[in-house]
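Fig. S4 source data, part A: sequence.
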Amino acid sequence: MFSRISGTVLERAGELVRIDAGGLTYDVVVPPSIAPKISDAGAMVTLEVYAHLALDGNAGRFTFFGFTNGIEREFFEALLSVASIGPKSAARAFSAPMGRIARAIDEGDHIFLKTLPGIGQQKARDIVAKLQGKVARFLLIQDAPARRNSAPEKPPMPEFAGEALAVLLQLAYRRPEAEAMIAQTLERAPHVADSETLLAEIYRQRTTNGTAAT
């Protein structure tokens, strides 16, 4: 099963995107918060794909869910690790910006989570119980992609900082901005020794400075 699709957008209908890839046409469902990032008909698009097989007796049908980068797909898969959440429910729940949802999970904000389509009191509790403290990389997902600019090579950084940098670049932060955030965070929090903690510290410092996404 493929995990990425590149092709021409044939048409869009709500959260459904029809893509022509090498002469084959695929219907891909994109969550509401992802849909505005997808180009209109006629444009080329590349999506990370999560494939779900629904069985009905001896027959099966695939549903493809699309995302603009691997981190968004990882967040979707993380939500699926909650026993009470299925793929269609997870896609509907991403009606708010993913970074905002991650923040609610990190802060245990059941009230906000209950406002998401299909997420009631019990599912909100399940999500927080399963994922709180495990969403650091998702806190920094941006609502809209930013242009990437090339930058000169920098001195080597710790391996875990390089892992955090790779995550930030996937999230469409510019390399100079991402490297600056990492350097500033390591200077202010020298105890940090792994990528997840580093990403969490970056997010918290941005929140303190009033620059985190809402």
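Fig. S4 source data, part B ends here. The helical segments are 70-80, 87-93, 98-107, 110-113, 121-131, 159-170, 175-188, 195-208.
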